Amino acid sequence: MQRTVVVAGGGISGLAACYHLAQSSSAPRIILLEGSSRLGGWLQSTRTEDGAVFEHGPRGIRPVGSVGKNTLNMLSELGLESEILPVPGDHSASKNRYLYVNKALHKLPSGISGLLRTIHPFSKPLIWCGLRDFTAQRGTQPDETVHEFVARRLGKEVADIAIDSLCRGVFAGDCQRLSLRSCFPMLYEAERKRRSVILGMVLAGGEKSHFDSALIRRAKKERWSQWSLRSGMEILPEALEEFLRGQGVQIHRDTPLRQLERTADNRWKITLPGGSIVADHLISAVPAKVLSQLLPRSEEPLAKELCQIEAVSVGVVNLQYDGMVLPVKGFGHLVPSFEDSILLGIVYDSVAFPDQNHRGAPSTRLTVMMGGAWFEEGIGNPDKVSQDQLLRRASEAVMSHLGICGAPTRAIVKLHKACIPQYTLGHWKRTENIFKYLKEQMLPLSVVGASYEGVSVNDCIFSARNAVEKLFQWPQ
Ligand code: FAD
């Protein structure tokens, strides 16, 4: 009899899991259950009548590494190549990234000459940090915070300014709490294998990957730093849905899983709002905390590990202004926590992706990101914060950081609750325990998504692919 695999959660991870399941030669019956009324999870775009696109979630996807190449292959297979908006290596959004420190914008150094000079806000040439890396001792702990690691290898100033900002930009998180081993596994491996992080990264960049296609070669040739999609990132879940429907996958929106029970023959009875279904295998693509609340009592050790994976909330404010009003050209700027803990950074969307500006007169599109690990202490309870409060804070930042004083011609405010999982110290052990438990107990359950092994869109898609590959290796 054909096996039934249920995928819980219709974000990019759940959709990617269905995609890989449907492509398998022994594809099971596939049912996707999404709790909300839309698919895509945090991939959310607004398309206006005059042709502008505003991203409320991810916008810039990196093409590098196996995970990046895997996503490019998926885009080709879905027929989305003509939608891609690449940011080539020589584009100002690839070359210019800024920090806002001491109430001023500072361009991050690039190229060798940038490393040899003292460039504010750093107090000495960054070449000294590189030399320090070559002499620093290998770490002895199984894990350390991102801040501790970078301070030890490259110096405290780089950790306080550059790495603090980077962690806020990527994880909306606090580098004094985030785990180096889980957030930046390449750096962890580089130190273990090569002793020098810089050397390790350079050598890792030359490692071969088995992914290849014309699109991958083009991305490499043009040195894309990242890419986005012309009609907005939400076109990706839309294309996936169309593909899955064509493959006979059953997709149910507004169908949140309420409870999981194990049956005597090692399957799942899944309770839904209007009844229940039975699955031979469940792929969970919902946040770890959500899964922990669905599991039966018998799986308490697993639930305990899952519920420790917290996520932070982010206020996302998209603003549009008439004219080209930015004082600098680049991808955007990040703000270290000592400068302003609430304001994580501002992305200059109209610089990186001008094709998403509205038709007609020139305009500037920005996205202001706020809160993250500092949301509660700096802004308040996410359940009580008003849209006006977030808009006011974003407009003030745009005025003081970029000198843009006029009123925006368009503003969209979103509050994403618990949207970015935080891989805090010891996360590697939690995930190891989770995967070990699933294997040892032979649970008919796989876990994928941003809660475990990478928060980027690429990581999520890759984790879904890996889980499906493993599923087909398991005893039937
Ligand atoms: P989710 O998107 O959270 O999907 C989970 C799904 O499960 C949701 O649809 C939810 O409704 C559903 N669900 C929840 N509970 C239930 C239930 N009980 N039953 C059924 N369904 C349920 N990454 C990048 O690579 N580049 C970027 O530029 C970037 N920028 C970002 C900006 C923001 C503001 C945010 C929030 C994230 C950003 N990310 C970026 C990260 C990336 O977008 C996310 O990590 C990724 O989209 C997470 O996908 P997911 O499918 O794992 O989870």
TrEMBL record:
Compartments it resides in: Mitochondrion inner membrane
Q: Which residues form a coiled coil?
A: none
Cofactor: binding comment = Binds 1 FAD per subunit.
Which InterPro entries does the UniProt entry name for this protein? Amino_oxidase, FAD/NAD-bd_sf, Protoporphyrinogen_oxidase, Zeta_carotene_desat/Oxidored
Keyword Mitochondrion on entry: yes
GO terms assigned for molecular function? oxygen-dependent protoporphyrinogen oxidase activity
Write out the pathway annotation from the protein's UniProt entry. Answer: Porphyrin-containing compound metabolism; protoporphyrin-IX biosynthesis; protoporphyrin-IX from protoporphyrinogen-IX: step 1/1
Query: Per the UniProt record, which EC number(s) apply here?
Result: 1.3.3.4
Q: Which cofactor does it need?
A: FAD
Q: What domain of life is recorded for the organism?
A: Eukaryota
> One short Pfam family name for this protein?
Amino_oxidase
- Give start and end of each Amine oxidase domain: 12-469
Family membership, please give it.
Answer: Belongs to the protoporphyrinogen/coproporphyrinogen oxidase family. Protoporphyrinogen oxidase subfamily.
Q: Oligomeric state and partners?
A: Monomer. Homodimer.
The UniProt function text for this chain reads: Catalyzes the 6-electron oxidation of protoporphyrinogen-IX to form protoporphyrin-IX.
Q: What is this protein called?
A: Protoporphyrinogen oxidase
Q: What is the organism of origin for this protein?
A: Geotrypetes seraphini (Gaboon caecilian)
